[in-house]
Amino acid sequence: MKKIFTIAIIMIVSLNVIKAQGVCFGIKAGLNLENIIGLNSNQGVVGVTENESAKMTFGWHAGVFARIRLDDHWSLVPEVLYTTGGSKRTYTRTYNGNTYSTTGTFSLSYIQIPVFINYKFDFGLYLEAGPYIAFLAGATSNDVTTDENGNVSSLPASHDTTVNGFDVGVGAGVGYRFCNGLGFNLRYNYGLNKVYKDYSIDNSGLSHTQPSYGKNGVLQFSVSYMFGCSSCNPKPVPVTTQVDIIQPKQVEPDVQFTVQAANPVPGQHVVKETLPLRDYVFFDAGSTQIPARYILLSKSEAQGFAEVQLQDCQKNPGTRSSRQLMVYHNVINIVADRMKKHPTSTITLIGSSAGKGSETGKANAEAVKFYLVNTFGIDGGRIKTEGRNLPVNPSEIPNTTQDQNLTSVEDNRVDIVSTSPDLMMEVKDNSALCMKPIEITAIDGNSANDAPIIVTVIGAENVLDTWSVDITDSKGEIQHFGPFTKDNTTLSGSVILKDNQNGNYKIVMTGKTKTGHSIKKEGTFALVRTKDPIQVEQRASILFDFDKSKTVSTFDNFMTTSVAPLISSNSTVVISGHTDIVGPEDYNMNLSKERADDAQKILQRELTKAGKTGVTFKTNGYGITDPSFSNNLPEERFYNRTVVIDIIPSSTVVVDR
Questions:
Q1: pLDDT tens-digit profile of 422-454?
Q2: Are 275 and 320 in contact (CB under 8 A)?
Q3: Which pLDDT value is given to residue 318?
Q4: Is cis: bond before 211, omega within 30 of 0?
Q5: Residue-number span of the structural domain to which 605 is assigned
Q6: What pLDDT is stored for residue 363 in this prediction?
Q7: Cβ–Cβ under 8 Å, residues 109 and 138
Q8: Helices (runs of H) and strands (runs of E) counted in the chain
Q9: pLDDT tens for residues 455-510?
């Protein structure tokens, strides 16, 4: 026994001095369900008939263990345990016609040393298997015997001389260990050595040789706790020698960066613009009242209203988009003013409800008629109203829910229809197509599109996720622009120059590559403001219904009679196509180019007829990029479905949009 405990102490001390950080220690204890397998009958006593059997009995085990981590999953686990074994025996013996019956518990105890290999999964479960050796610590029995006369006797006995003092076996099991070190384990041990050893008996003239028999079979359920190590985050084995591994340097794809600044930067210029007038009045969902964003006058204000008041924007120029919306939100007042000036004109108001029924559409139309009659005094007999579920030309329904929400709002409206050329333009087959536009004059100041600074990053679309630029003047003031995703963008020289007459600038492009790295490029440029006289430019716009690109059938007459005559020889015509945000980006880009190209073809045809030469066209489609309006309101989306035509005299700085 002393040798056994000495071996155990040596193992624990040896493990304790191991330097590896992957060694952890723990304690465990639990219950045994144990038996002796393979008990025999007729064990060899001459003249004796003997039958023996065994049943499982309960025991226990307790001890210490170490876990030696091999890698993230594998570990070696040696243990030192005190464990019991044995069984509940029953046997009978018949000798000279007399039968003896004996029952009792046969108890074994061992110092067991398992050495198992563990495989741990990432979520705490582990499997184990390995051999063990065991040294016998004790073997006793407490039998109750009944003889042929029914006499009962109890006889405790020691079996140290009949039981092998050494066992060897194998085991396997499964367990689960929590991050805090607490664990549970189920293991089965099977002994390979016989429990009973060979021995001889010579008693009362009876002698026989007892062969070895029986093997240990023990099912163990354990609760354990491991100290100082997290089962989830094992401590790494320290590296005593640092090895620097030089990875081959990956060559990042590069981009080419250029800056082209136009000079000089022009001063103020005057724009005479023909603004299209959308002949729809849009209503809010759930209401048949004219929305408050439309300019509604009182009766006294209506008496002094005239369309010409909207044509002079020089005192309050604002922006092109704000001017256009200001004019559009006066559309009902403009219709009333034109009807007062032309008393024979009539209109039809066709109300639609975006699928809510023709009665709601009729109520929308009646709301507009009520305003015209009661505020401006227009004879109600000159105004017809109709109600529809959807407009005659509804906005088409795209495939996504978001786009359906946008286009549905556009179908909740009142269409203003007339055959009077005093109100409308493009009269074809006695059916008016749109409202007659309104002409305005405005001083734009330093136009945001004058003297463009073209920043080009060749390869940006393939190499970079995004890029931006920082422009620093001689005083150290920085202006930031971006982020951008395309290969080029255009910045405003007027915006960068501000109120200065000239300036030298440093521009730094910073891009983030698709692999997460940064690219930086630098350049310089200079700007000078010109003192040239104010130049007068002409601008016209045409509008489109949803998803329509045909300008020939809709605006041919307007562009032929109103726009083409404004273009002189050697001038520059900048045609810019735009769309709203409904639909895929690539589709809208192609649609805007189709619209711009159609407009150019009409103008080139008319210029050829008129004999005008030297005209330069700069035609581009921008899709949903660079919109003039926010796309929040239905009228803003309609005004974004446009082609803008800038006619620039030959002496003016050319805008390349």
A1: 887 753 333 345 677 777 776 654 444 456 788
A2: no
A3: 53
A4: no
A5: 535-657
A6: 96
A7: yes
A8: 11, 30
A9: 899 988 888 988 999 999 988 999 998 888 888 888 878 788 887 888 899 999 99
Question: Going by C-beta distance under 8 Å and a sequence separation of 6 or more, which residues neighbour residue 499?
Answer: none
Take residue 152 and report the two structure tokens written for it. Answer: 């009962």
AA identity, residue 288 = T
H or E element at residue 365: helix 358-376
Residue 585's contacts (CB-CB under 8 Å, 6 or more residues apart) are 623, 624
Query: What phi and psi values does residue 328 have, to the nearest 5 degrees?
Result: -60, -40
- Give the pLDDT of residue 656: 35
Assess whether 96 and 196 both reside in one domain: yes
Question: Which among 342, 320, 336 is positioned nearest to 281, based on CA atoms?
Answer: 336
Neighbours of 538 (CB within 10 A): 19
Element housing 466 (H / E): strand 464-472
Contact 112, 81 (CB under 8 A): yes
Pairing status of strand 166-177 against strand 616-621: unpaired
CA 136: distance to chain centroid? 65
How many alpha carbons lie under 13 Å from residue 101 in its C-beta half-sphere? Answer: 6
Rounded Cα distance between 605 and 449, Å, is: 28
pLDDT score of 657: 34
Distance CA 351, CA 281 (A): 9
Residue 251 within a domain? no
Pairing of strands 270-277, 536-543: parallel
> Are 279 and 260 in a shared domain?
no
Give the amino acid at 205.
Answer: G
Contact predicate 546/591, CB 8 Å: no
User: At 506, which CATH number?
Assistant: 2.60.40.10
Contact present, 24 and 226 (Cβ < 8 Å): yes
248 in any annotated domain: no
For 196-225, give one letter per residue: b (16+ CB within 10 A) or e. bbeeeeeeeeeebeeeebbbbbbebebebe
Does the pTM exceed 0.90?
A: no
In this prediction, residue 316 carries a pLDDT of: 46
Residues 452 and 507 in one domain: yes
Closest residue by Cα to residue 75 from 116, 28, 113? 116
Tokens (6 digits) for 2: 């002393």
| Residue whose entry in the numeric block shows the structure tokens 């030192």 | 80
Q: Are residues 384 and 463 in the same domain?
A: no
End-to-end Cα, the chain, rounded Å: 98
CA 245 to chain centre: 35
Residue-wise pLDDT for 356-380, tens only, equals 999 999 999 999 999 999 999 999 9
**Which runs of consecutive H residues, i.e. helices, occur in 520-624?**
552-558, 585-610
- Note whether 412 and 364 are within 8 A (CB): yes
Tens digits of per-residue pLDDT, 215-254?
899 999 999 999 877 666 544 444 445 555 555 556 667 8
How many other C-beta atoms can be found within 10 angstroms of the C-beta atom of residue 602?
18
